[in-house]
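quick q for whoever's on today - can somebody do inverse folding on this one?? i tried earlier but teh output was garbage lol. tokens:
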């Protein structure tokens, strides 16, 4: 079995993830494709991930790809996470991940409707949900685009309340609105359009999928074909990776993950005693790139691409990740994390290194910090998931 060591794995990141200066992307679509999809749970991540990979890019460039050209689309995907996906790849994500999620979430929502006493037993609750979904979809079609609040005006049943964790200190009674829209989005029937506020806003206009994108999100791929395509794209960007990495990143079952590896004819490699996989023909050493530095945002796809992160993270996990596995803003040098960055109220980019990286790399990091301060132009980014070191750097 061929061995691929840590240094080789780190070397691949500069070229494949478009982080080395000589390998950067030409546009937001190429930037997204280099890491398969962009994380979009935190709206700022999308723009900062693109800016880290596309020289000279700005918010307007990414917004144009998302909302005018529609060459990128925001959708629910792997692990019930919202991603920004190259539009041509959206049917793959829908069939490979979103469709299964929609089935599971429908069962869960019906259960919650019954528990809240909204529609009797499961069969009646399912019928109630279908009726509300169809009414909501019709209202959206008539409007062309709408906010959740506007749709709730058209379909009053969206204002029904669920009963979450009754009797607990964290009990809540949320409106069913967001869950119904989530369900319609998971099924690929509606899509998120422009944000209601600035590019940092997490609230969006909704549109019917067919109105937003010719043909909608449905494709002609079977689930198995789509999973094969997604696994191939993942290994192109993130290989070598383990079976556990692939299963975690996709949110698939163990059986689905194994089947996809067989379908792409993945080649086993030795990752210092652990079995990893690459695509056929991808065993050769990566062509070296120049030394590089990158400031990546919270939830950037690169650090979130593997379940096992030791090979690029070292001993820094407790300071850079929150307790549920979300990474904060990170500083990279030649394929490994060497520090973190944040923004105090004054808006400048402040950083802290976690190890000695030498004078030349430190100088490059200082230059990147100044460049990001200019790029943000006083806009302060507060990650949705706060991490220990980011909190410290954001004080004052």
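ok took a stab at it. sequence:
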């Amino acid at each position: 079995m061929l061995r691929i060591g840590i240094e080789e794995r780190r070397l691949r990141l500069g070229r494949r993830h478009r982080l080395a200066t000589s390998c950067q992307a030409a546009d937001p679509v190429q930037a997204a494709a280099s890491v398969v999809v962009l994380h979009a749970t935190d709206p700022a991540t999308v723009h900062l991930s693109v800016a880290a990979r596309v020289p000279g890019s700005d918010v307007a460039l990414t917004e144009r790809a998302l909302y005018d050209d529609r060459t990128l689309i925001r959708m629910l995907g792997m692990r019930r996470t919202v991603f920004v996906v190259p539009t041509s790849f959206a049917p793959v994500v829908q069939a490979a991940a979103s469709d299964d999620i929609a089935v599971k979430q429908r069962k869960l929502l019906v259960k919650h409707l019954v528990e809240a006493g909204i529609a009797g037993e499961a069969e009646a609750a399912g019928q109630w949900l279908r009726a509300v979904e169809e009414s909501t979809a019709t209202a959206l079609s008539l409007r062309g685009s709408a906010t959740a609040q506007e749709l709730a005006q058209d379909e009053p049943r969206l204002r029904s309340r669920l009963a979450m964790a009754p009797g607990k200190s964290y009990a809540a009674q949320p409106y069913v609105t967001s869950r119904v829209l989530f369900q319609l989005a998971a099924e690929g029937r509606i899509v998120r359009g422009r944000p209601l506020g600035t590019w940092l806003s997490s609230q969006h206009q909704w549109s019917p999928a067919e109105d937003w994108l010719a043909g909608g999100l449905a494709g002609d791929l079977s689930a198995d074909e789509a999973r094969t395509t997604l696994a191939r794209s993942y290994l192109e960007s993130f290989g070598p990776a383990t079976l556990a990495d692939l299963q975690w990143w996709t949110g698939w079952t163990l059986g689905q993950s194994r089947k996809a590896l067989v379908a792409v004819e993945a080649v086993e490699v030795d990752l210092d005693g652990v079995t990893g996989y690459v695509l056929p023909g991808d065993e050769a050493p990566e062509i070296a790139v120049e030394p590089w530095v990158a400031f990546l945002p919270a939830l950037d796809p690169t650090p979130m691409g593997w379940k096992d992160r030791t090979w690029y993270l070292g001993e820094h996990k407790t300071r850079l990740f929150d307790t549920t596995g979300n990474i904060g803003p990170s500083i990279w040098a030649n394929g490994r994390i060497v520090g973190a960055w944040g923004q105090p109220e004054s808006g400048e980019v402040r950083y802290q290194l976690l190890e000695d990286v030498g004078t030349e790399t430190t100088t490059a990091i200082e230059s990147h910090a100044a460049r990001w301060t200019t790029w943000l132009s006083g806009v302060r980014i507060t990650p949705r998931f706060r991490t220990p070191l980011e909190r410290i750097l954001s004080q004052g």
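fwiw The first strand starts at residue 38 and ends at 39. also Residues 309-393 form one domain. so keep that in mind when u check it
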